[in-house]
Amino acid sequence: MITLVTGGTKCGKSSYAEKVLEGFEGEKYYVATMNPTGDDAKEIIARHLEMRRDKDFVTVECLRDIGNADVPEGCAVLIECMGNLCANEMFIGPNVHKPAEKIVEGIRRLSERTAELVIVTNEVGCDGISYSADTKAYISQLSEINCKIAEFADNVVECVYGIPVVRKGSSVC
Amino acid sequence: MKMIIGGAYQGKIRFACNWLDMDRADMINGSTCDFEEAFSAEVIKSYHRLIARLLAVGVDPVEFTKKLCEQNKNAVIIMDETGCGIVPIEKSDRIRREVTGRCGCIIAGASDTVVRVICGIPTYLKGAPNED
């Protein structure tokens, strides 16, 4: 089963994603995509570690090449989050890449190895601000990734101020 | 408690006036009201602005919102959705946006009815139109 969880900042996506896997009996892996540099990143990572305490997740980092994430066959995987993964793949040194296709393929390959795959992503296109070309490209790439994953995901859920709104399939919790 | 959310200028206030059979003059405005008024107001509009103002004077909006939900259980809170964009460059903007998300989750959790208005059209995310 593949579940895509989307929504704005601090709208309960992580809590919902963890809930999806609450009843899973096998091994659970948390694939962290955030580059752990900067104060904000440290704060976020600390908060998410605290949230996952006692929830039996094995945490692995995967900043790029999500298709090769180091997780065993048949486990449950929670990826958090697509916004960071996209940025990591996109802005490497001075170059700006278009990673949508690579990331979507990676997710597809990963999903073949996992019993449950929950992907946390972000809605970034609704603030009405006109950004630089690179940022516009980022919004476009991430939105493309979201649309393409949604095509083959079983469930797509948008979290709105903590309320799960089903966009495809069903809400499993 | 009731909550009305949506982007800016989507018709939240007009919807609220029809739904609650009231006038916009009877709402307090998060952009201008006294903080204490929130604990007894029937309807607060622009609650996201109140959050920004609380932050500006060093009051924790999360604690304020929890207290509001405990003390003003019949309030109607109207606020924008602000989190669906690019992470802002300014730290204060990032904090405001994140805190707005957290406060929104608290209010939604405490509300029987949560309505999202887009293009003037209400969608009930929690509860149903005629529930009181």
Mind sketching the topology for me?
The complex is a heterodimer of chains A (173) and B (132).
Chain A: E1 2-7, H1 13-20, E2 28-32, H2 39-52, E3 57-61, E4 76-80, H3 82-90, E5 91-92, E6 95-96, H4 100-113, E7 116-120, H5 133-152, E8 155-160, E9 163-168
Parallel strand pairs in A: 1-7, 1-8, 2-3, 2-4, 4-7
Antiparallel strand pairs in A: 5-6, 8-9
Helix pairs in contact in A: 3-5, 4-5
Chain B: E1 2-6, H1 12-20, E2 28-29, E3 43-45, H2 47-56, H3 61-71, E4 76-80, H4 91-110, E5 113-118, E6 121-126
Helix pairs in contact in B: 2-4, 3-4
How would you describe this protein?
The complex is a heterodimer of chains A (173) and B (132). In chain A, the strands form two sheets. Chain A has a seven-stranded mixed beta sheet with strand order 3-2-4-7-1-8-9, sandwiched between helices. A two-stranded antiparallel ribbon of chain A has the order 5-6. In chain A, helix 3 crosses helix 5 (133-152) and helix 4 (100-113) runs parallel beside helix 5 (133-152). Chain A is of the alpha/beta class and 173 residues long. Chain A has helices spanning 13-20, 39-52, 82-90, 100-113, 133-152; strands at residues 2-7, 28-32, 57-61, 76-80, 91-92, 95-96, 116-120, 155-160, 163-168. The radius of gyration of chain A is 15 Å and the shape is globular. The model of chain A has no long low-confidence stretch (mean pLDDT 93). Chain A contains five helices and nine strands, in the order βαβαββαββαβαββ. Chain B is α/β, with parallel strands linked by helices. Helices cover 38% and strands 20% of the residues of chain B. Chain B has four helices and six strands, in the order E-H-E-E-H-H-E-H-E-E. Chain B has a six-stranded mixed beta sheet, sandwiched between helices. The longest helix of chain B has 20 residues, at 91-110. The interface between A and B is medium-sized, with 23 and 27 residues.
